[in-house]
TrEMBL record:
Ranges where the Tetrapyrrole biosynthesis uroporphyrinogen III synthase domain occurs: 15-263
Originating organism: Cutaneotrichosporon oleaginosum
Database matches in InterPro entries: 4pyrrol_syn_uPrphyn_synt_sf (IPR036108), 4pyrrol_synth_uPrphyn_synth (IPR003754), UROS/Hem4 (IPR039793)
Record-level GO BP terms: protoporphyrinogen IX biosynthetic process; uroporphyrinogen III biosynthetic process
Lineage of origin: Eukaryota, Fungi, Dikarya, Basidiomycota, Agaricomycotina
Name of the protein this chain belongs to: Tetrapyrrole biosynthesis, uroporphyrinogen III synthase
Any one cellular-component term (Gene Ontology): cytosol
PANTHER family: UROPORPHYRINOGEN III SYNTHASE, UROPORPHYRINOGEN-III SYNTHASE
One Pfam entry name: HEM4
Gene3D superfamilies linked: 3.40.50.10090
GO molecular function: uroporphyrinogen-III synthase activity
Amino acid sequence: MRVFLFRKPALGDTYMPAFAAAGYEVTSLPALEDTLLPDALEPVLARGGGAWEAVIITSRRAAEAWIRAADAVAASVGALDEPWSAVPVWSPGPAVHSVFAHASLPPAFVPSPAPTAVSAAALAPLILAAPPRSSRSGDAVGAGYRPYLVLAGDKTLPLLTDSLRGAGRAVERVKVYETREAPGLAAAVRALPPQPGWVALFSPSSAGFVLPHLEAAGFRLREGVEGRTRVAAIGETTEAALREGGWRVDAVARTPDAAGLVAAIAEAEGRQADSNL
């Protein structure tokens, strides 16, 4: 069974080996090109973490922007008023923590890992249930909570920040990257053989670029079409965006990682096999 992964393999990529080990014929194609914008983050990092309740980073690209900004700041400032290591960082899945683990930053610029969740939206109840980082009096925000620093891209959905604001928490978003369609994506899709199998999508923005190209190239993606190529989503946020756009979603990873995606596709294939008996 052929699986097309619309993502750029990262250093130490686990997706292609996991699918190959499970017996799938796997191809990975970059769907997005990101431009990091660390300059806006540098003055925030230079002031230290004392003003913030927590950092929220929901993508690998945002974590990479933090690393680049922190490298620049660490080379030009002395001791921070309060190190970022005293501030928790919330993120879905292991990708963000992996970026920090492989970086060579001074410890004062590495926020402390907080519990993870399967999606950005699922982080909200965990964050809201956490006690305040301190019990300082006189805070402007309810119950002693300081503002949350959210690193976002130009296409990052506001589901998590809306939940926090709806609960009365203060949030400041800093745009640290911009996302565009990867150069050559349309030509790469046209070169693929349109056949039954799977396409796996890793974000709402990549889905918005990829699926129209697939349909234009002859892939059958719509429900009820015989010989249809099935669609898998890395998590609930991507699934919701796909369904909102009118696309059928056949599998959703329970965890946003290679093992979760392989398991979701294998389970969906098992259900189809049972229905054909």
